[in-house]
Amino acid sequence: xxxxxxxVIAEPGVxxxxxxxxxxxxxxxAAPSPASAGPAxxxxxxxxxxxWAGVHLAGISPQVLQSLGVLAQRFSPQVSxxxxxxxxxxxxxxxxxxxxxxxxxxxxxxxxxPLHPRPLLAFAPTALAALAVARAGRPLQIVDxxxxxxxxxxxPLAVLxxxxxxxxxxxxxGVRTVGAALRLPRAGFARRFGAAQLALLDRxxxxxxxxxxxxxxxxxxxxxxELEHEITDHERLLRALTPLWEQLAAFLExxxxxxMRLECRLLHRHGAATCCAMRFAAPMADVQRLSALLRERLxxxxxxxxxRACELRTATVPHQRDSHPLWQPGExxxxxxxxxxxxxxxxxxxxxxxxxxxxxxxxxxxxxxAWQVSEPLLPQGAGIARAPHGLPPxxxxxxxxxxxxxxxxxxxxxxRPLAERAGLPCRRGxxxxxxxxxxxxxxxxxxxRGIARDYYSAMDARGVRLWVFRERAAPHGWFLxxxxx
Length: 485
Description:
The protein is built from 14 helices and 17 strands. The protein is of the alpha+beta class. It is elongated. Among the domains are: 38-205, Alpha-Beta Plaits (2-Layer Sandwich), CATH 3.30.70; 222-318, DNA polymerase, Y-family, little finger domain (Dna Ligase, domain 1, 2-Layer Sandwich); 410-483, no CATH class.
């Protein structure tokens, strides 16, 4: 006759020989100190410091779920999607910003309503627990980790999304709730139903960490709008761009960035797409202003063919919102760069990107090579953080010419030869009066465009101050190179 050996494994806090009733909460012992209990206690302390919000959205599409994940980042930087219909976010550090749990629940529900009619929210110390409670349709707020298992025990196993076969086998054993599954021996449970289900229970109760991948925002904005019918006039085209502007506003707010380059592509049935591109002197996050500038630019560009689709593309850089100073522009201590930036952008939208540009100095002694054209450099406070992809890099430092080395602001494109009389240069038939000592510039031999000149400040008969030079090499000709203002 075979002998049967029965081994009883008692859960912590349950007396040996006592069997808890079905659906009853298992008592949770007090958490030991981290120094005495090691990693398990450290995890308990981490769970005690976290509070997760779980959002269940039945029947939501993957695209809408992704959009809602981006929208939820206004409440917490730790947002994770749980496809196909779940969303979790850590909100412990955000409670003081939204008037506690009640205020956060109200605002989060209001943010979800435009995308989903019936969002279900719950709060718990672990992400999986918050989502499981939300799936059960119970708007619980489990703030105390010691009450976590007691609140999870009555929930049906369906909230854990285990395979149907596993749930059916457990049901035949009389295990239909989370609490009943937690009371099963761990070794036997893992052997019968797999280690994955046991690991899920550990993450549910905070026994083991539950790392989650945060929602990643798109690095670039590129949206396309297919039109219901072809458009042949600018006004209707601008109205059709309204949904794209709303998406761009949400994109800029989520990324905390500004637009440095905006491109609007108009697609036609026949022929190549019409491209309308604008570059800006400073990062711009005002979508209404962007729309007004694009309107100005499109009105200067005729539509060669009817438009069947339109697309917006942007190049962005990190950007901080403008803050208003205490003093208004023009008052004592007040100044402003916004009017300057607005004027630059308006002129470039009206006349093109090449109508307004900046000038920067280069480290070169040759006058014709000592400057270059660049993007407009606005005063301090409206400068560019860094050049985006597709734009020329902006110089980090602007070299300023010392006052002693006088240079005219107006340089001729090419030096103009001057006649000579008695060793002096002549202009309009009269000799020029040379003032001061000459400045010798002899450089550029390394790139094949070397110069050797003696520059003078000269005055003509009408009192116009000129900048002339004489070549040091034969035939020692005189040239006019610039005019002082």
